[in-house]
Design brief:
Elements (H helix, E strand, L loop, with lengths): L1 H59 L6 H13 L3 E8 L2 E5 L8 E2 L3 H4 L7 E2 L3 E2 L5 E9 L4 E7 L9 H6 L2 E7 L4 E6 L13 E5 L5 E7 L1 H39 L1 H9 L3 E10 L5 E12 L3 E3 L1 H11 L2 H22 L4 E5 L2 H4 L4 H9 L8 E6 H5 L5 H12 L2 E7 L5 H7 L4 E4 L1 H5 L10 H11 L3 E5 L4 H9 L4 E3 L7 E2 H10 L17
Parallel strand pairs: 13-15, 15-16, 16-17, 17-18, 18-19, 19-20
Antiparallel strand pairs: 1-2, 1-7, 2-3, 4-6, 5-6, 6-7, 8-9, 8-11, 10-11, 12-13, 12-20, 12-21, 13-14
Helix pairs in contact: 1-5, 5-7, 8-10
The structure holds ligand C2E and calcium ion (2 copies).
Length: 523
């Protein structure tokens, strides 16, 4: 479970980083497919236009380069947005062109352009013409008289209108004939031919003509976009982590504090009792202790009662737990209590105890002859008393007192109608809630209430205990108020039994002298 909670923190960010990578690759593939299809469609369309234009020329033009022929060629170029030049080729030489009026014949040097098949069109490899101009030539062969008609076009035209955007998206596009001859390359153009470019690649085939369009996405783009996506996804991952973590923590704690788990832990010896010294405020001697449960979890370390008591109460297991605690007190402190008859040890009760018909019998049986009942103090809060409206609590407390045990009202002032309970129930001690001790010396409105509580307790002849004393100022204030006992970290935290016995031995007559310093060994 511990590993699971830790995993909950790590897994979502890792998963989201991986997801963001696939997402980015997916984004790039979609873009590449869009560009490549647009270019393939565009090329199909241009070559289609070329084919029909050439078919028209082939049907109407003679092999002789008359003025009409020249004019017809010029008109062809003029009427089209694609073509830069139209030519008539006879016996392997250009005899007529839309761009020149002269009759000079120019032989065709590209071998493949001289051996054009007699059906459809031939798309030539780019040809370098005068002034470094590269053109693609689309050629139609007329079998009857060995004439050919050509249309020149700028290869870059095939990439319009996506060329600019592809460059922005760092995608390189190449149009090739099916035999691998490059017709045009654009987008993010580097020095490398498309076949050698690194990155994701995708190929779209021309629908009408034997061409293909290859798109290659740049790794830099992928990385950059991944970083951006990862940022968004990482935040999502962190939120998921936090939620998952909290959920698991909740479940874990629940499981941790569930009855079954606590039972196993008790059987496994993971529970311990710690004793927090209770000091006589006037003399500084240690005169008692409050027993507090600690759970030493094998993975978690010390688990405090706040985590498990409530569930142990809900499941009713608290009754078993308290019985065990009482036995532990006998084991740990029977000798000490015998040797110090004025010493007392307190333990906390829960509402469930008042519904337990065997409580008194258990107390008698466990403490029996080993510990005098007068040395035991049961701490109850107003909460417990309220939970037992039917006077059961009152009856149980009276019986406890009849046994000789003492009763303390715990966390006094934190509850509801305190005075009502004070007069109705047979209390011996009043433990002033830590909140009032915290307020001492502050501007808070509760600051003065500690005086009132002590006065009430005195009137009702209850011994006062101030809990949660943390500062020397609080201690001297409480001593001035003549509070009977003090308990808190200033004097000592709760200690394991052996350390507690040592503390008692050292503080039997230890006086809270000047400066109210505490023995540093136990601070
Ligand atoms: P509580 O009965 O009010 O116990 C006093 C709590 O205050 C203890 O916390 C104690 O360690 C802590 N404390 C003592 N001095 C100081 C101080 O100077 N400063 C601060 N900040 N805290 C101080 P702990 O041991 O965590 O117990 C918490 C609560 O759990 C107890 O409150 C009690 O209600 C319950 N609990 C503990 N052990 C048992 C038990 O055996 N049975 C039952 N039913 N409840 C228990
Ligand atoms: Ca208590
Ligand atoms: Ca308390």
């Amino acid at each position: 479970m511990f590993a699971l909670v830790a995993l909950a923190g790590l897994l979502p960010p890792a998963a989201f980083v991986a997801i963001s990578w696939f997402q980015t690759v997916q984004q790039m593939n979609t873009l590449m497919a869009r560009y490549a299809s647009a270019v393939a469609d565009r090329a199909d369309q241009i070559f289609g236009t070329a084919e029909s234009t050439l078919a028209g020329m082939s049907q109407t033009l003679p092999t002789r380069c008359s003025d009409e022929t020249s004019q017809a060629l010029r008109r062809t170029v003029f009427e089209s947005i694609y073509f830069q030049e139209a030519t008539l080729v006879v016996d392997g030489a250009v005899v007529c062109s839309s761009n020149s009026t002269g009759k000079s014949q120019q032989a065709i040097t590209y071998r493949e352009n001289r051996l054009v098949p007699d059906r459809g069109i031939h798309i030539s490899a780019p040809v370098r013409l005068a002034r470094e101009r590269m053109v693609s030539i689309v050629i139609h062969y007329r079998a009857g008289d060995n004439a050919m008609f050509g249309l020149h076009l700028n290869p870059l035209l095939l990439g319009d209108p996506v060329r600019k955007y592809a460059a922005e998206d760092q995608i390189t596009l190449a149009i090739e004939r099916d035999d691998g001859t490059l017709l045009s390359q654009f987008g993010l153009i580097g020095d490398l031919p498309i076949s050698q470019l690194p990155g994701n690649r995708l190929v779209v085939q021309g629908k009408r003509y034997p061409i293909r369009v290859t798109a290659v996405g740049s790794p830099a783009w992928l990385l950059h976009n991944w970083q951006q996506n990862a940022l968004i996804f990482a935040s999502l991952g962190l939120i998921t982590s936090a939620l998952l973590f909290l959920l698991l923590l909740y479940l874990w704690r629940h499981q941790l504090s569930g009855g079954g788990n606590v039972q196993d832990a008790l059987a496994d010896g993971q529970f311990h009792v710690y004793y927090q010294p209770m000091i006589d405020a006037a003399t500084g001697a240690c005169v008692g202790a409050e027993s507090l449960l600690r759970w030493h979890h094998p993975q978690l370390g010390t688990v405090m009662p706040g985590t498990f008591i409530a569930s142990a109460e809900q499941s009713g297991f608290i009754v078993t737990l308290t019985k065990w605690l009482m036995r532990r007190i006998v084991k740990d402190l029977a000798t000490l209590l015998k040797e110090n008859p004025g010493f007392h040890v307190s333990l906390n009760l829960s509402p469930q105890h008042f519904a337990d018909p065997k409580l008194l019998a258990d107390i008698k049986q466990i403490f029996g002859q080993k510990v005098a009942p007068t040395q035991i103090v049961f701490e109850v809060t107003e909460h417990e008393l309220i939970m037992n409206e039917d006077n059961r609590a009152l009856e149980v407390l009276k019986n406890m007192r009849a046994l000789g045990a003492r009763i303390a009202i715990d966390d006094f002032g934190s509850g509801y109608s305190s005075l009502k309970y004070l007069s109705q129930f047979p209390f011996d001690y009043l433990k002033i809630d830590k909140a009032f001790i915290d307020a001492i010396g502050t501007e808070s409105i509760t600051a003065g209430l500690v005086d009132t509580i002590v006065q009430i307790a005195n009137q009702l002849k209850l011994k006062t205990v101030a809990e949660g004393v943390e500062t020397p100022e609080q201690l001297s204030y409480l001593r001035r108020l003549k509070v009977d006992f003090v308990q808190g970290w200033l004097l000592s935290k709760a200690l394991p039994a052996d350390q507690f016995r040592t503390f008692v031995a050292a503080n039997k007559s230890y006086l809270l002298g000047a400066g109210t310093s505490v023995d540093p060994r136990h601070a």
